[in-house]
Amino acid sequence: MYLYEKVEGYKAQDIRAGRKIDDFITPSCIIKRLEFCNVCTTCREPFEYKIHNGVVTSNLTVDRISNAICHSKYNSQLMCKLCNVTKGNRFDKNLYDVEDKPKKKKTTFNDIKDNEIPKF
Ligand SMILES: [Zn+2]
């Protein structure tokens, strides 16, 4: 029930933002993913649930990978609240590689080879 409400909330959010509702994520889809992996995709923090006075609170959120598309099955990943808030409204597909890569030094246009098109 908690997940059902969560999904409905995301749907309302996407509709308000004018995003097309297509192949929307379902509670059972979230449960399946949780069975497979019960930690945040970004920081590996385990998801937690607390029930207080019948109200469920959780650090589980569904993140849209691309900000331009709704919470569809293919555009969603499970993320903890903190990471999702930190990520904010920014869409950065390099976000998850950042930690692994050493910081690139500044390149001038003369340094750029054909196979190294910079991402802006
Ligand atoms: Zn996280």
Characterise this structure.
There is one protein chain. The chain is of the alpha+beta class and 120 residues long. The protein has one domain. It is built from 3 helices and 4 strands. The protein has helices at residues 2-16, 27-36, 81-87, and strands spanning 49-52, 55-58, 60-64, 76-80. It has a two-stranded antiparallel sheet. It has a two-stranded antiparallel sheet with strand order 3-4. Strand 1 and strand 2 form a beta hairpin. It is globular, with a radius of gyration of 18 Å. The chain starts with a helix and ends in a 33-residue tail after the last helix. Mean pLDDT is 83; it is low at 93-103. The site of zinc ion (ZN) has 8 residues, from strand 4 and helix 3.
SSE inventory with pairings:
Elements lengths: L1 H15 L10 H10 L12 E4 L2 E4 L1 E5 L11 E5 H7 L33
Antiparallel strand pairs: 1-2, 3-4
The chain binds zinc ion.
Pick out its properties.
two-stranded antiparallel ribbon; alpha+beta; 120 residues; binds zinc ion; 27% helix
Number of domains: 1
**Class by helix and strand content?**
alpha+beta
Distance between the termini: 41 Å
Question: The biggest beta sheet, please?
Answer: 2 strands, antiparallel
* Quantity of strands, as a count: 4
Percent of residues in beta strands?
15-25%
Bound molecules: zinc ion
Radius of gyration: 18 Å
Mean pLDDT: 83
Order of helices and strands: HHEEEEH
Number of helices, counting only DSSP H or I runs of 4 residues or more: 3
The main sheet orders its strands as 1-2
Shape: globular
Helicity range: 25-40%
Low-confidence stretches: 93-103
